[in-house]
Amino acid sequence: MSDRSGVQRATAAPASANPVPQRTTWQRERVREALTDARGFVSAQTLHATLREENTGIGLATVYRALAGLAALGEADSLQSPEGENLYRACESPGHHHHLICRSCGLTVEIEANDVEQWARRTAEQHGFTDAQHVVDIFGLCGPCAQARTGERDAD
Ligand SMILES: [Zn+2]
Ligand SMILES: [Zn+2]
Ligand SMILES: [Zn+2]
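# zinc ion complex -> structure
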């Protein structure tokens, strides 16, 4: 983890001229950076561990809050793993979209799903719901992981 070339960031000078409206602003920025550096979906605990290595002094509760804030702003994706854990990811696509996630290696593909959009809207309408939202993510094994698994089985 030492060859982080290209990461050279001016240490945020305490800007006395700049009144900070929210105390959590720099912390949220730091969490956002850590999220961007992470590959695939990560939990708050994982990010917190990363930030602790860097001695940022950011607490787990703050990480949770920052992630929820980023997700609310649409700057991070959030989803629940099959184990029920909340996972987050810095999102590459700005608008509403879905994900294909490899259960084994965490590879994530952002996908559009027009069928799902239509089905969700229609279903909500049929039940008299408006302003409906949905989260649909597909978990599975990516090609290479599935192949590796088959290879293991053949070797037995
Ligand atoms: Zn996404
Ligand atoms: Zn995979
Ligand atoms: Zn959708």
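# post-check
The longest strand covers residues 76-80.
The pocket of zinc ion (ligand 3) is lined by residues 96, 98, 113, 116-117, 134, 136 (CB under 6 Å).
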